[in-house]
Amino acid sequence: MVFLDSELLKYLIYSQHEVIQNEVLVPRSVEFEPNDNYVLVGMRRAGKTSILYQLIQKLIEKGVDWEQIVFLNFEDERLINIKLEELDKITLVAQSLTKKPIYYFFDEIQNIDGWEHFARRLADQKQHVFITGSNSKMLSTDIIASLGGRYMMKRITPYDFKEYLLANDVKYDKNSIYIPSKLTKILKYSDQYLHFGGLPETLLQNNPRDYLNNIYQNIYLGDIIKRNQIRNPKALSLLINKVAQVIMHEVSYNTLSKNVKATGVSISTPATIDYLEFAKEAFLLFDVKNYVAKFSQKESTPKFYFCDNGILNLFLFKKDTVLLENLVAVTLYNRFEKDVYYFHSKKTKIDLDFVVPSAELAIQVAWQLDDFSREREVQSLIKLAQNSDEFTKFIIVTKDQNEKIIRDNLEIEVMPLHKFLLTYTK
Q: Domain containing 326: what range?
């Protein structure tokens, strides 16, 4: 066994200080309570590490010494084989550097089996601890129970639209959409955001599509395959491709399994369920269930969406309507999480893209309202209002139309994408 060396730890700690000092960051809108410990989870390359860097820079500005900062990335090959029982060496080395309170930052610590027991002990000792991970299993009931309520959980997403604007040096307020020069920039970046998503590093690329394809193939797929020891990676790849083709539609696991089998690659329905669960755990996909379906149908025929539009767009060719609905789904899910549903009732013939019960919100998505689509989308919302008093706000999200429709004493707001993003981003 290779044991963790004290000199190596000191080298890693001090070299990381230099990296953080030199990092130029785009501010992210993540708030931390000063006396709480945190676990940050989210898809890879969403910016979790940068958020920790931002927090560290703020601590230094407030007078914390660099010797109080211990940042370790557990995907560093020099740490990749360490065991749970060796983690105490970290605290011993940290305590040799300063007598002041220490701030521990552990990046991707889920690579160490049993990490949660070490994390809980640090919290019990009143240490300041911040942890990141790229798998939702870190939010499982078993992990949360092991942490004993000592940590606050935060899900970190790629840039929301407001952060995306700031990252592109676009300063805005509530009146910006009425100022032509500012609106021009907002429209430009809403279109980029629609097609390339919000992963921070896409903004640094001359060809963001090539970058997205590279990280999808080599990081997202590779991570899911390795972490879950998948023996049939071709089936996983085809399955995710098939999911991209059915965005906007409810689909059963059995149907997805048959679609993959039709390509000549064998996959069972139980394996399909497992593989999609792995993709959800990696924050690649999420699902939305039918608000009015019975439990069995709710669970067996969801709608799937991608957590980032840029990744979804790798599978599409000139399907902006699909991208629009996916982006609406992402924006709602990032704000309301599990309280986002679709509404499909054979009995009442109501078919709605999204409802958010806690916000009393019903939403249809249409690229453009023409004479045909206008009547269809409006009638669906009217039917909902006539059959349910749960919802009081009715919206049709379009690419660029902006108006109010009054029909049968119901007010429906037709909202362009950029306005929707600015309104419903957290």
A: 192-424
What is the dihedral angle through the alpha carbons of 155, 157, 161, 165, rounded to the nearest 10 degrees?
A: 110
Identify which of 97, 48, 38, 32 has the alpha carbon closest to the alpha carbon of residue 70.
Answer: 97
Closest to 303 in 3D by CA, of 358, 267, 351: 351
The backbone torsions φ and ψ at residue 386, rounded to the nearest 5 degrees and listed phi first, read -75, -25
Which pair of tokens denotes residue 84?
A: 């749970």
Neighbours of 92 (CB within 10 A): 10
Distance of CA 88 to the CA centre of its chain: 32
SS3 content of the chain, % helix, strand, coil (to 5): 50, 15, 30
Beta bridge pairs of residue 286? 305
Apex 71 CA angle, 66 and 72, nearest 5? 150
Q: Mutual orientation of helices 253-261 and 233-245 as an angle, nearest 10°? A: 120
1 belongs to a structural domain = no
With H, G, I as helix, E, B as strand and everything else as coil, classify residue 30. Answer: coil
User: Are residues 200 and 166 located together in one domain of the fold?
Assistant: no
Q: Report the candidate in 52, 152, 29, 147 with the shortest Cα–Cα distance to residue 106.
A: 52
Which of helix, strand or coil describes residue 258? Answer: helix
Instruction: Look at residues 95, 105, 120, 144 and name the one whose alpha carbon lies nearest to residue 16.
Output: 105
For the record, the structure tokens of 402 come out as 């902006």
Task: Give the pLDDT confidence of 32-70 residue by residue, as tens digits.
Answer: 998 999 999 999 999 999 999 999 999 999 999 999 999
The residue written with tokens 């429906």 in the block is 412
Could you tell me the strand order of the sheet in which 403-407 lies? 303-306, 285-290, 341-345, 350-356, 361-365, 393-398, 410-416, 403-407
Residues 248 and 152: their CA atoms lie apart, in Å, by 34
Rounded Cα distance between 179 and 163, Å, is 20
Do 365 and 239 reside in the same domain of the chain? yes
pLDDT in tens, 88-142: 999 999 999 999 999 999 999 888 888 999 999 999 999 999 999 888 877 666 6
- In this structure, the answer to whether residues 152 and 197 fall within a common structural domain is no
pTM higher than 0.90 for the full model? Answer: yes
